[in-house]
Amino acid sequence: MVNKQKSGKRLKQSPYKGIVVFDVDGVIYKDIFLKKIVQSRGFINYLKIIILGWRYFREHITLDGLLREGYKLAGNITVQEAQEVANEIKITTTIKPAIKVLHQNGYLVSLISAGIPNFVLKKLAQEIGADHYTGLDIEESGGEINVEKIHVISKVDIADKLIQELGLEWDQVVSVGDDPGNIALLKKSRIGIGFNPVKSVRDNSDVVIEGNNFLEILPYIIPQEKLPKTISISRFNWRRELFRKVVHLGGCAIPFIARYNKILTSVVLLAIIVIYLISELMRTFGLSFSLFSQITRRAQRHSERRGIVYGPILLGLGIAMTIVFFKSEIYIPAVLVVSISDSISALVGRRWGKIHIFGLRNRTVEGSTAFFVSAFIILYFYFPLPVAIMTTIVAAILELVPVYNMDNLLIPVGTALFLLLYGI
User: Helix, strand, or coil here: 359?
Assistant: First the structure.
């Protein structure tokens, strides 16, 4: 065991299959260490660090500028105070089991942070089982941190030195990060994984993971046959789809609420759509908007991780338009079909779908059959048999529209319009 205090290394000189490098702030830590330090220095300084962080994420200032100005805002802070702040920051719980699996498959785990002092990373590495750590080199004097002398590290240089010491190559390195300071490392690694990343990192990552589950990175690093059955891309996608459709089913309540006050319900729904859109714009830049961002991250499909998720917007607009332009005798069953039948179709199609319709990747015979049966049951509850059959056929055709998530808009509006033309 080698422990070089200056570089913060705890290495076992034995062969490794590769290295997985984790950023810490916003990745393993659910918050930003420097922001929490400055927050304890008063509200004005807290606002200043938020502005600095925004400028950094927008790439208007460098990481070096962010850290130097940020630590000046921290003022005279002791090592003990800094460690106490670090102890209060929540750690993503799945990091420990993820590191355990990486170790079992021959990977060394490294923590490299440009903004967190070495003494903080040392404790964190011991806690989660990391093999190596290198953080911000800050001079200490009399138990206080000297914020005037901060030595910003190059993550690429640190990783390159570690690679040479272990006799490995860059094509054996996987890196995980979220902010612009990781881009050079992500691009140089064999696999660069953006973990809840800002837009610039999202655009420069090989893989994008949203949420707080580190186990989701493992199938991109380790062959599936060497992983437990519970750790697979298909399983993670299924869980996301299940959560997504539970949220989708929430639309069932809206038409019944609208019966009591259509205008208020419509206004509130449109307001939620606007707030959600703002939340999505913020999320793509790496800023979290409380509940909305958390829900989106849990519900995102793999194909949606590069930008805004438009599905809820189209669903909200579809429900709102149906409520505004049609009577309750029409909008209630129309909204129930898109909320219930579309959800059942997606779950059945993803779990058991084998036969694709017209070669469409996201449309299967099994899923469409589930849609047809459930939609017919809903419509037959409200209308005579001939009306229910004809309307179900129309809704099923609209569900097959191959444009991304457009069925969320077309099914309720199209179903309601057909019922109106039919004479309901």
Answer: coil
Rounded to 5°, the CA angle 384-388-393 comes to: 160
The answer to whether 304 touches 405, Cβ cutoff 8 Å, is no
173, 202, 231: which is the final residue of a domain?
231
- Whether residues 174 and 302 share a domain: the answer is no
215, 280: one domain: no
Last residue of a domain, one of 215, 231, 247: 231
Residue pair 339/312 in contact (Cβ under 8 Å)? The answer is no
| Residue 236 pLDDT | 72
Inter-residue contact 193 to 178 (CB < 8 Å):
no
The CB density around residue 207, as the number of other CB atoms within 10 Å, is 19
pLDDT in tens, 86-139: 999 999 889 999 999 999 999 999 999 988 988 899 999 999 999 999 988 776
CB-based contact 214:95 (threshold 8 Å): yes
Q: Read off the CATH number of the domain in which 43 is found.
A: 3.40.50.1000
Residues 6 and 149 in one domain: yes
136 touches 115 (CB < 8 A):
yes
Q: Are 98 and 218 in contact (CB under 8 A)?
A: yes
pTM for the full model? Answer: 0.73
